[in-house]
């Protein structure tokens, strides 16, 4: 994908709305912790910036004040905030504290509705990140932003800071983790955001009369990435592009698909301190203990020889739970298998899946909410992991589950397509089970295929677990690709104007 030019160490400003372990709603948080760590290992100087949400405990994470107050120019007013610092390993992580914007219980919404001022909240985060660079005299070579929440970073660099000597050598990279969420807001926010009318045009921010943050980033960023090669192809056309396909096509040359990795410090059955028993390819006995603990935790019948299918997901249409809903009861009545569900999101899905254990006690377990312990327990204790996603930019759970010897069952889309090697019944090889059609019965037969493999071809199961557990999705490879992308962004920046 990239030429093999020599990569030098860079100063990288990495801005994200979620960073594990401080705040997490999905995979973006995992990436925003693991990628900076991997970049640091390659020799880059990385600084991470995120909001100091109300839920981030200053004492638990030993947050130290760095600047108070810091004035951030928004439109024609100065907005004052404080900045705190903590560390991930030895990477500085800066928290922007502003009571009115971030001192509330949710991240993006109040549990029912998106916050009415998300445009102002996240526009402010981007401006504050740039102001922080000045105040601590950190001149980044690269400003790396992620998804709509931090999409304004690149436009701010190209417009407000276009002639600013401090950011003269800063190039921008924008990563798309999910193009379905673009950050679309009423134009009333333009003034506070400091986006001039000359940029509120169809090729930049304007989208059917509204401001589209992601669209603006696609115009202004020096380089664009997304989280898997397949997704990079899918979003160039509709419906994958969610309306932004034509704008991505214009930047085709600057768009790169770089697969997410696994942070093996967190997700590795040999070292995982969260699970009840550790295990490895050489000694799998711990996995049986994890399975037993999983059955207890979810009130399932304690049967070591019945396959368990697990799901850990945000309950949104993306995750394909609507393919499972019509067949789940047929599955548990026709096949000897157990199911566990962990997740939260849309009320109708929560009600449906949350209500199943009462109808099928001992066979289906469910827990509605976010719980890191249960997520690790499912990864380690289940035999199969379900991801029937309608689309999946990358997906992390399928690659985590492979490391735990829990075979993923996935629809062939986006990153699922790039990471799971479908079972070949002739050779007994593969790392999971794949299907194509967006159809409950395609999923039904694939689960049936997995159940029959579990009972009838145990030697194939053993072989697949071995292949899955030995697959390497380390962040190092991806971080090297990002490093090359940074070089490319810097070259492109110099030829932009
Ligand atoms: P997405 O970012 O689209 O939600 P990913 O597969 O990339 O999907 O990442 C999801 C991450 O969020 C994984 O680390 C997964 O374990 C975690 N996760 C999702 N839902 C829950 C939950 N209810 N409880 C704990 N962890 C969860
Ligand atoms: C998004 C995507 C998911 C991806 C994650 C991290 O939330 O839905 O597929 O793994 O971002 O990049």
Automatic annotation (TrEMBL):
GO molecular function: alpha-1,4-glucan glucosyltransferase (ADP-glucose donor) activity; alpha-1,4-glucan glucosyltransferase (UDP-glucose donor) activity
Record-annotated Starch synthase catalytic domain positions: 11-249
Pathway annotation: Glycan biosynthesis; glycogen biosynthesis
TM regions (residue ranges): none
Catalytic activity of the protein: [(1->4)-alpha-D-glucosyl](n) + ADP-alpha-D-glucose = [(1->4)-alpha-D-glucosyl](n+1) + ADP + H(+)
Domain annotation Glycosyl transferase family: ranges: 304-454
Keyword set, alphabetical order: Glycogen biosynthesis, Glycosyltransferase, Transferase
EC assignment: 2.4.1.21
Single Gene Ontology BP annotation: glycogen biosynthetic process
Top-rank EC class of the record's enzyme: transferase
KW Transferase (keyword) present: yes
SUPFAM superfamilies, per the entry: UDP-Glycosyltransferase/glycogen phosphorylase
An annotated GO cellular component: cytosol
Binding site for ADP-alpha-D-glucose: 24
Function per UniProt: Synthesizes alpha-1,4-glucan chains using ADP-glucose.
Protein name according to UniProt: Glycogen synthase
Name of the encoding gene: glgA
């Amino acid at each position: 994908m990239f030429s093999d030019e020599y990569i030098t160490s860079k100063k990288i400003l990495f801005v994200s709305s979620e960073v594990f372990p401080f705040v997490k709603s999905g995979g973006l948080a995992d990436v925003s912790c693991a990628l900076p760590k991997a970049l640091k290992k390659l020799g880059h100087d990385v600084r991470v910036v995120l909001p100091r949400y109300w839920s981030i405990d200053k004492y638990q994470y030993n947050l130290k004040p760095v600047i108070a107050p810091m004035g951030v120019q928004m439109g024609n007013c100065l907005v004052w905030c404080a900045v705190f610092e903590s560390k991930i390993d030895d990477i500085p992580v800066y928290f922007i504290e502003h009571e009115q914007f971030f001192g509330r219980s949710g991240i993006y919404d109040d549990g029912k509705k998106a916050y009415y001022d998300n445009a102002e909240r996240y526009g402010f985060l981007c401006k504050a990140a740039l102001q922080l660079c000045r105040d601590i005299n950190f001149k980044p070579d690269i400003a790396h932003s992620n998804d709509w929440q931090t999409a304004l970073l690149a436009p701010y660099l190209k417009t407000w800071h276009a002639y600013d000597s401090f950011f003269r050598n800063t190039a921008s990279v924008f990563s798309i983790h999910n193009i379905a969420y673009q950050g679309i807001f009423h134009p009333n926010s333009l003034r506070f955001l400091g986006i001039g009318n000359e940029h509120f045009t169809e090729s930049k921010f304007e989208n059917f009369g509204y401001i589209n943050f992601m669209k603006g980033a696609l115009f202004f960023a020096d380089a664009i990435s997304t989280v898997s090669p397949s997704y990079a192809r899918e979003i160039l056309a509709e419906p994958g592009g969610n309306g932004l396909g034509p704008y991505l096509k214009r930047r085709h040359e600057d768009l790169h698909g770089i697969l997410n990795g696994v942070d093996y410090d967190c997700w590795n059955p040999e070292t995982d301190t969260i699970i009840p028993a550790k295990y490895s390819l050489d000694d799998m006995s711990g996995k049986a203990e994890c399975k037993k603990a999983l059955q207890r935790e979810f009130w399932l019948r304690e049967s070591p020889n019945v396959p368990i299918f697990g799901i850990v997901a945000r309950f949104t249409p993306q995750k394909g739970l609507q393919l499972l809903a019509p067949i789940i009861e047929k599955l548990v009545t026709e096949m000897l298998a157990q199911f566990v569900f962990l997740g939260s999101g849309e009320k109708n899905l929560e009600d449906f899946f949350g209500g199943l254990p009462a109808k099928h006690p001992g066979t289906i377990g469910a827990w509605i909410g976010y719980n890191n312990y249960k997520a690790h327990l499912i990864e380690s204790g289940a035999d199969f992991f379900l991801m029937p996603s309608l689309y999946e930019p990358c997906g992390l759970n399928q690659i985590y589950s492979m490391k735990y010897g829990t075979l993923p069952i996935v629809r062939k889309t986006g990153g699922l397509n790039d990471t799971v090697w479908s079972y070949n019944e002739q050779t007994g090889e593969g790392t999971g089970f794949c299907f194509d059609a967006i159809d409950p019965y395609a999923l039904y037969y694939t689960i049936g295929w997995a159940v029959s493999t579990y009972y009838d071809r145990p030697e194939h199961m053993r072989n697949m677990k071995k292949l899955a557990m030995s697959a390497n999705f380390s962040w190092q490879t991806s971080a090297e690709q990002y490093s090359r992308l940074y070089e490319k962004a810097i070259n492109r920046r110099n030829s932009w104007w």
